[in-house]
Amino acid sequence: MPSHSSRTPGDLMRYDVIIAGGGPVGLACAISLGRDGRKVCVVERSPAHVLADPPFDGREIALTHHASEWLKSVGAWDEIPAGNICPMYTARIETGKSGSPPLLFDAPTAGPDALGYMVANHLIRRGLYRVALRTPGVDIRAGEGIASSWHDTRSAGVVLANEERIEADLLVAADGRFSRLRAEAGIGAIVHDFQRSIMVCRLRHPEPHANTALQWFDEGQTIALLPVAPDDRPGSCSSLVLTLEPDEIARLKALDGKAFSEDITARTQGRMGQMTLESARCVYPLKAVYAHRFQAPRLALIGDAAVGMHPITAHGFNLGLRGQEVLARAIANGAGDAGDPSVLSRFERTHRRATAPLFAATNAIATVYTRDEPPFLMARRAGLAVANRLLPFKTAVTNMLMDRHG
Ligand SMILES: Cc1cc2nc3c(=O)[nH]c(=O)nc-3n(C[C@H](O)[C@H](O)[C@H](O)COP(=O)(O)OP(=O)(O)OC[C@H]3O[C@@H](n4cnc5c(N)ncnc54)[C@H](O)[C@@H]3O)c2cc1C
């Protein structure tokens, strides 16, 4: 049976589970465990006012149906203003300069009416924080640094920067793709450095986006234009995801708004008309990470700390949500001790099976589609032409985008 948190002499707090990192996946995990009657402590270094109203970070998350259903089931979907949710009906993939036929994935006419939903990351984080705050059993220690942590066969815990000790049956590392807890546990990771940076920002344009996500593997640059929900202003708004060498991204970030808008209008060959920058430009290094193990004694890795995906297939957060569900289920089906080795191995087995093939496939796609040497160019032109004629392939990819299996 779940135990309870309690204060003991020497200010030692005890929980069932401590989650290091109050990002979207850490908060989702706290909600799942709290709903199962567990006592959970989330330790997050950002202050509470940032969690309550996170700043725009450029990321527009393509949520699968499974992810949106999970968010609905816990009440987080209702915390996202409906006008900020943009259904995506078509995914359009192009390669090369222009003129070659695109590969199109359309939402099926029967069943759910969209391939998925685009929602800004900061709104997902805000929604999850609001739900976590009202979930019984969940304590959030915001603005707290972790000075040190431990986990062994008997117990796990953290010491905060203010020297307070918090102990639990299980420590969960949800501290992002460059996870300190993972490194301190001596767990290595496959790190695929694409030697590129990604810039993300919103631009307004006169041509409608028609709820289509464009992924364009041009020679020398990769551009995605993702649909943003309409507002009451003229034109449409899209999220630009631009992948280039880090120096070029730094140069573009230093341009003033007008020069940047001109540059993007030219890069997109005016297909949406004149582009106008209307948000901050956020830059991320392009590194994919896969932890060698997802567990150690009384330690579990979730979210990007376990699997940090290349964003090209839009699966990072979606898989992170899956992972925390798998962990919560393994704990619920266990004998009571959240850190029991059998619980952790069940979690690891299931989550590796779900993520390893996708991680490898995503890296292969990202490599073939972002390198410009002649064999890669030929492979992607041929690949797109063949894929366009293969109905079973297109159906399988559509199902993967929608996450309709499982
Ligand atoms: C440009 C871009 C586009 C993306 N698009 C998509 C998409 O379309 N679909 C999709 O599914 N995914 C997408 N992703 C991936 C998605 O954003 C991540 O998978 C997701 O944010 C991972 O959440 P997380 O909670 O595991 O980690 P993070 O979001 O990195 O959160 C980690 C948290 O831990 C905290 N933390 C770190 N260290 C400590 C510490 N020592 N003590 C306390 N707190 C700590 C941090 O402050 C942070 O709040 C995209 C990513 C990028 C960069």
Cα Rg: 22 Å
- What's the CATH class label of the domain at 6-87 and 117-191 and 289-370? Alpha Beta
CATH superfamily of the domain at 6-87 and 117-191 and 289-370: FAD/NAD(P)-binding domain
User: How large is the count of helical segments?
Assistant: 11
Described by the principal axes of the CA atoms, the overall outline is globular
Strand content: 25-35%
Briefly note the CATH topology name of the domain at 6-87 and 117-191 and 289-370.
FAD/NAD(P)-binding domain
* Number of E-type strands: 21
Share in helix: 25-40%
| Structural class by secondary-structure content | alpha+beta
Q: Which blocks of ≥5 consecutive residues have pLDDT under 50?
A: 1-10
Write up what this structure looks like.
With 406 residues, this protein is of the alpha+beta class. It has a domain of 239 residues: FAD/NAD(P)-binding domain (3-Layer(bba) Sandwich), CATH 3.50.50. Helices cover 35% and strands 30% of the residues. It contains 11 helices and 21 strands. The strands form 3 sheets. Strands 1, 2, 3, 9, 10, 11, 12, 19 and 20 form a 9-stranded mixed sheet that branches. Strand 1 and strand 2 form a beta hairpin. Helix 1 packs parallel to helix 4, helix 1 packs parallel to helix 8 and helix 8 packs antiparallel against helix 9. The structure holds flavin-adenine dinucleotide. Flavin-adenine dinucleotide binds next to helix 1, strand 3, strand 4, strand 13 and helix 8.
